Amino acid sequence: MAENIVKISHLRFGPANKPILDNISLSVEAGHFMGIVGPNGAGKSTLINIIAGLTQPDGGHIDLMGECLTRYSRRRLLKQIGFLHQLHDHQPRLPMRVSDVVAMGLGQYASPWKRTDQQAIKHALELVDMDKLTNSDFRQLSGGQRQRVRLARALVNKPKLLLLDEPSAALDSVSQDRLFRLLRRLCDETGMCAIMVEHDIAAISSHVDSVACLNRQIHHHAMKGENIPDDVWRGMYGDHIQIVAHDAGCIGCHPETGTHHHD
Fold it and tell me: Which domains, and CATH codes, for the chain?
């Protein structure tokens, strides 16, 4: 049986009369690639921040790597977590090489680099096809290139858990597919657990093992090959949804029609 990397029990965040997250329970094992989808304001980024130990929940319990997440264990557990934050549209100002940005993901960034650190940086940049730009100025990169460097920073410490908040936002469709395939391969080959927030279930459904449908609560947790019922989509998005043709073999599709719901 695979190790539980994340176990959430009855998690709550926000005012009692209008919580942002309410009664969230979820378990994710090693090697599992999970997508989280839902409308704007559904609490997706909040949930990722809570799992990362960056936001304190108002109720419930979280175990990471089999250990309770507390203010005392947080620093130690975070060393096993990689986090790719949501991309904000701003131009970096400080002059930094690409390798310096990736090195920030190492535990001892302020210390002189060891040979093993240099190898880890090189390997992380190779994973995201950015190794040829190791010494380039990070400010001069395109938005998509900077996002790939940020992903390398999240991967450089070989985390047991990788959290990603809309990682494909600055990427074109080819780069998006390459990213999802890389994450799928890392989960399969290294046992890394990945939890990724994305808006478009159609883009991720052929790569992930499961999809959690979130809007304040988890309305459904669909495994690969499972159909997501119509009432789940209505519970997340309301009645303002339309059906878009897609591959019937993916998560969430209706086997009869091969369609996904989108708002």
Answer: 1-80+159-226 (3.40.50.300), 95-157 (no CATH)
* Tens digit of each residue's pLDDT (9 = 90 or more) over 97-122: 999 999 999 876 555 567 778 899 99
From 205, 199, 235, select the one nearest 217 (Cα to Cα): 235
Rounded Cα distance between 156 and 100, Å, is 12
pTM of the model as a whole: 0.86
Q: Is 56 left (phi over 0), alpha (psi -120 to 50) or beta?
A: beta
Element (H, E) at 98: helix 98-103
Residues with Cβ within 8 Å of 245's Cβ and at least 6 positions away in sequence, in order, are: 258, 259
Q: Report the alpha-carbon angle 168-215-49, nearest 5.
A: 55
- Written as six digits, the tokens of 119 are 């190898």
* Single-letter code of the amino acid located at 16: A
Instruction: Report the run of H or E that residue 197 belongs to, with start and end.
Output: strand 193-197
Task: Say what angle helices 173-190 and 143-155 make with each other, to 10 degrees.
Answer: 10
- Counting every residue written for the chain, the total comes to 263
